[in-house]
Amino acid sequence: MLTKFIEKLKKEERKLEFPEGLDTRIIEAAGRLKVGGILEPILLGNVEEIKKVAADNYLNIEGIELIDPMNYDRFDEMVSLLVELRKGKMTEEKAIASCKQTNYFGTMLVKMGLADGLLGGATYSTADTVRPALQIIKTRPGAKLVSSCFILNKEGSRLAMGDCAINLYPTADQLADIAIETAATAKLFGIEPTVAMLSYSTFGSGAGEAVDKVREASNILKAQELDFLVDGEIQFDAAYSPAVAAKKCPDSVVGGKSNTFIFPDINAGNIGYKLAQRLGGYEAIGPILQGLNAPVNDLSRGCNADEVYKMAIITAGLK
pLDDT category, 319, cuts 50, 70, 90? Predict the structure, then answer.
């Protein structure tokens, strides 16, 4: 699944930062990326400490760029830019303190054009990874919000699910935007999106505000010129199973053949992708952040080095 991304990256020199440069999982993945000639990793943190952790764990960091935010020759320039970017919201004192934190420091390196993207979250929370990106990188032109998508992969079966990590209770308009962004991400992974707007109701079988919201989002999408099929509100079984769709929604354009699923809120999304991962045996890749002006992605704190390696390739390949 990563072949396309790897081929692209080997033709284009990309620099990807890792704010948690002291983490053995990060160091191991960075070494693999460097040795494989896939991209140029940058590890952030105290240089001597990174070297010691690598040596103690027999990890190769030869040729990898190491940057210490506490000893950086363009630190004052970075602080001045952050104060300007956060004018009226961040004092110089606060900017100095922020730039000493690797999550903010790394995001500023991307903003300054000194790195192509950032992958964090091995020890940072999602909020601590995403917040600097929202404040500094911001959304790309035309994007209305930042959302997330997981790609689920199992023996040739590939699904996309959003939003499972960022937006708590999206509105109907936001759900429509999430669907458009998730469909675009799905295409990057070779999925021709057939989008189901999920609910506990299938075309009026249930009632309530939550159902109305999903139905409204579906209608917003259907009023646009899209390059993918979409329908809803629809239950997961009717969206996924042809046999169930034949009974519940035989006239639906996505019934029984959906591969891209938009959840009504973060509760459903987070539970849904983890059920597919843990009970269904799917490999879950993500969260892939959508809508930012530069590639920034968040890892699960329970990730392993192989997952870091894969997410690094995806993150760098998104630019």
Answer: low
